[in-house]
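Working notes for the structural subgroup meeting. M.R. asked for a predicted model of this chain before we commit to crystallization trials. I am recording the input and output together here so anyone reviewing the notebook later can reproduce the run.

Input as submitted:
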Amino acid sequence: MDYSKFSDQELIRAYISGSESYINEIIIRHRPRVLGYIIMSVKDRDIAEDIFQDTFIKVINKLKVGSYVEEGKFISWVLRIAHNLVIDHFRRTSRVRMVRANDDYDPFNQIEVYDTNAEDRIIEKQTHEKVRQLVEMLPDTQREVLKMRHYSEMSFKDIADSTGVSINTALGRMRYALINLRKLIEENKVVLSK
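Returned structure, recorded in token form:
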């Protein structure tokens, strides 16, 4: 059966009505975005996979007991559950992790550089590393919004929903993140372009 023509709400209603196969389409449909967000947060693919599974176990359990109120915000609801499980993970590990790029994803490697020599590439790599370090110096709420927006390409509405704040608060956090990042770049004399 071609599930792609069904909306999330239709799939959820069919699943709740007893058609178990519909939940697979929901998981497949939203896996890239949810898993991408979790990987961006924990920087470990194995841990992210575990949290992804826990997220959908929670989603399924909540759907079965009727805890989901259909408001057309299914993906935001799922991302909020994932966000809470990421927070739980960090509480359990009870240590602060430095967010580092890994083999699975490094957003700075997405930038294509043309006509550069080895020296230019080394300088560029050092600059990207300095900017990543400066991003880590931002307050938690600002850093979180910046990463969700730029690395996970989430809309401000989705960011607001997944962090439990208003869109204006999410926009404000992003604004202050950029202001503070610019200050840090100037203070640390990081040259972003020639």
